[in-house]
Every structure is written in structure tokens, then in C-alpha cells.
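User: Quick sanity check before I run a bigger batch. Here is a single chain. Can you write out its predicted 3D structure?
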Amino acid sequence: MHSARDRVEYEPWLEELEQVADRLDLSTEARSCAVDLFLADVPDDDRSKRAVLAASVYAGSLVAGDGRTQGAVADAADVSRLSIQTRWKELLETAGLEPPRW
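Assistant: Done. Predicted structure follows.
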């Protein structure tokens, strides 16, 4: 659970996350997971926020069973696939979840 203060502070990024989720037609559960993952590990550096946002969307879609490819998420979020690939497992681990081992 995240504070209202976090949601207000990162509102522009959460709006961007929703736009990415809209482009991917993600379920409500996938969106909620993505928001939780993003807010659990928001980087200080603005340059890194977009990559973490994309990785959160990807990981959130996996957790919710609404999986999208890294490439599809990267295109929707305007980041490289490598940005997602290098971050998504760590986001899940930080949230106390075990990433798949495929």
C-alpha cells in the first residue's frame, strides 16, 4: 500500500503509466500491479523513471496473468526492450515476489 502523498508526488508518472496501459489494453488488475510496483521503487533520477515505469507495466502484466511482450511494452512506453529486460525481475524481487525462471 502506498500513501496518498506518493500518488500525488508521482501523479504525472502514474498518468503516463495509465496511457501506456491504455495502449496495451491491460486489465484493471495488471494496471494496479504496475502502479504498486512502480511506487515501490521510484528512482530519484527522472531519466530512469520511464524505464522503471515500463518495467513495472511489463511485470504487472505478468503478475496479473495479462502478459504482454517486452517489445510491445517497450513500444507503448517509448523505451528500449533492454530497459525492461534489465529491470523487471529486480522489481518483482523488491516487491517480495519470485520472478519466473524461464
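The mean pLDDT is 92.

User: Great, the batch can go ahead then.
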